[in-house]
Design brief:
This protein has 261 residues and is an alpha/beta fold. It is built from 12 helices and 7 strands. α1 crosses α12 and α8 runs parallel beside α9. The longest helix has 20 residues. The relative contact order is 0.18.
């Protein structure tokens, strides 16, 4: 049985895809069998990992039932990928039958024993795709940028999480809130950290000790079809993500690397 982790925040621009890519690559480097699932119609996860998302079958075909999932899963240097593109934007209108909240869970049930970790990149919205991710997942990682609007996005997902726990997936838990683009020297960043810790208590979780700093490698790596861990393994951002991996893998008790000094 795989650990299924969704990366989520209804606010865009908070580093969800960068986090998903880095987790995939880091886990893959540690010997885990990893599947990345792109639930964002922008298709950023597949693009960042070097896939031609406009000319391949996607998760949209799987959710529709027109292609089996094993035919659509595509290998990459960071693990396998279930890609997406703009066609998935029709999901809200097209997937309207009873039980639509379980579409992803049912699809992943066919392959979850093939992987140690499944990482789901979600869209910047609380819609049927995000709910599908929550129903399929056992853990959530909530990235946020150190700004007030990002903080608001975190606080607004609480109701959706509570609804999913109550109606569809009682095992769902928030692994932690992740601060991206973080600079402890800035007053606003320190203020947002304090508020994030308050929200974390409301979600019965924590703010990860690992805080991801800004770095040019984050912007450059997608153009090379690589995660920042592969593109710039010695960068401060890559170091931050390796510390995050240590925290997350401790939650699951496997593939835990020695602490990074």
């Amino acid at each position: 049985m795989s650990a299924i982790i969704a990366i989520t925040n209804q606010k865009g621009g908070v580093g969800k895809t960068t986090t998903a890519c880095s987790l995939m690559d880091g886990l893959h480097q540690r010997g885990a069998r990893v599947l990345g699932v792109d639930l964002d119609p922008q298709g950023s996860l597949g693009f960042c990992l070097g896939l031609d998302i406009e000319n391949c079958a996607t998760i949209y075909d799987v959710l529709k039932g027109s292609r089996p999932i094993r035919e659509v899963i595509t290998p990459s240097d960071c693990g396998d990928v279930l890609p997406s593109n703009i066609l998935l934007s029709a999901a809200e209108l097209e997937f309207n039958r009873p039980g639509r909240e379980f579409l992803l869970k049912n699809c992943l049930s066919e392959v979850e024993d093939d992987y140690d970790y499944i990482i789901i990149d979600t869209p910047p919205a609380l819609n049927v795709l995000t709910v599908n991710a929550y129903v399929a997942a056992d853990g959530l990682v909530v990235p946020m940028a150190p700004e007030i609007l990002s903080l608001l996005g975190v606080s607004q997902i609480r109701e959706t999480i509570d609804t999913v726990r109550r109606c569809y997936n009682s095992r769902l838990r928030v692994l932690g809130i992740l601060l991206n683009k973080f600079n402890l020297r800035l007053i606003l960043n320190r203020d947002v950290l304090d508020m994030a810790e308050q929200i974390a208590r409301q979600l019965d979780t924590k703010v990860f000790q690992a805080r991801i700093r800004s770095g040019v490698a984050v912007a450059e790596s997608p153009a090379h079809g690589e995660s920042v861990l592969t593109y710039a393994p010695g960068s401060k951002v890559a170091r931050d993500f390796r510390l995050l991996l240590n925290e997350i893998t401790r939650e699951y008790g496997s593939f835990t690397a020695p602490p990074i000094r």
